Amino acid sequence: MGTLTAGVPKGMVATRFATAVNIGLVVIVGVWHLGLDTLLMLRGWQEYEPQAAAAGSWLALAVIQTVGSILLLRSALSGHTARLLAGAALITGVVATATYPAGGMISDVSWAWNTVGWFGVLLLIQRPLWELVALLGANTAVTVCFLVGDGALDQVMVARLLAVIYTTAGVQLTFAYLARQLNDGAREATEIAAGQAERLARATADETVHAERRRRYEYLRSRVEPLLRGLAERQLDPGDTVVRHRAAVEAARLRRLFVETDGTPHPLLHELRACADVAERRGVRVTLLSYGDLPDLPTSARRELAEGALLVLATAATQARVTVVTTPEDVVVSVVADAPPETLVESPGPLTVSAVYDQEEDQLWWETRWPV
């Protein structure tokens, strides 16, 4: 379940969406200042006084824009830095407005008011909305103060001022509000998607556990139940060698079945150890050796690798040696024991199997290979 939910980390979609909004905002402010403001200044260059202050204001705002954009795109724009840069933009806007001709605060040569507002959106997009409202209010108050100082605030100018406020500050506030709503929506969608992924992962895990339990139940019904019923109904003789062999094999298989899902560093060795324990309880001396670092093996591969050793250990008389060798090419499980040759009748599965019986030494050698 952790593997499934790890593919949909919470906040990833929302973060990417916020990054896209930030990139769009940086582009808007960049085109506005470097494009439109430059054209306005060049067209009305002769009307600014002093011209050096006007050029310095434009350059200072360009620096503020560059620094703020880089920090925003890197998600390194802290609240203190954002407020500091926004304050610097407001002061620079005051200097730029002071260079306008008398009564030119709302004219073809005025550029700082709208630009400072967009800078506020850029720098305070991640801050509470009231901070942007305060900046836009202060920016508007600067223009009003200059109009009052020039004695140009008549009824016509008031109407023009209200229209400009509506078309500038209104658009900027709307943009900031919609960006926040979209970010919140993306974050909510991410949380919903993460919740759905978690529920799907839980359902998948439950289905997997259920399927595994059914597999084990079917195994018990097909292999162990007939043996136990035969012993209970006295149809099978516990003293019969064949019956004892079947019992030893099924006991080892059950033991391996119980431990194959244990969370151990090396599940294959754990399962082989369980098979060896069953043999040791019958008095068989078992040696288990391992060479090399075992890779992660699927359950089916571990089951087939352990099956051959299980069969030999279940029929070993006095001693057995199990060896696990890991190479870059394959994993090899071999067992040598004083087991009867009849053990060779059963095959553990489709893996590569080698078996040799030494009649002189009364030793059975079985090897199973799984390609890495």
Task: Describe the protein in words.
- The protein is of the alpha+beta class and 372 residues long.
- Helix content is 65%, strand content 10%.
- The protein has eleven helices and five strands.
- The protein has helices at 2-6, 12-43, 51-73, 79-98, 112-124, 129-150, 155-167, 169-232, 241-259, 267-281, 299-315, and strands at 285-291, 319-326, 330-337, 352-358, 363-371.
- Strands 1-2-3-5-4 form a five-stranded mixed beta sheet, with helices on one face.
- The chain is rod-shaped.
How are the elements arranged and paired?
Elements: H1 2-6, H2 12-43, H3 51-73, H4 79-98, H5 112-124, H6 129-150, H7 155-167, H8 169-232, H9 241-259, H10 267-281, E1 285-291, H11 299-315, E2 319-326, E3 330-337, E4 352-358, E5 363-371
Parallel strand pairs: 1-2
Antiparallel strand pairs: 2-3, 3-5, 4-5
Helix pairs in contact: 2-3, 2-5, 2-8, 3-4, 3-5, 4-5, 4-6, 5-6, 5-8, 6-8, 8-9, 9-10, 9-11, 10-11
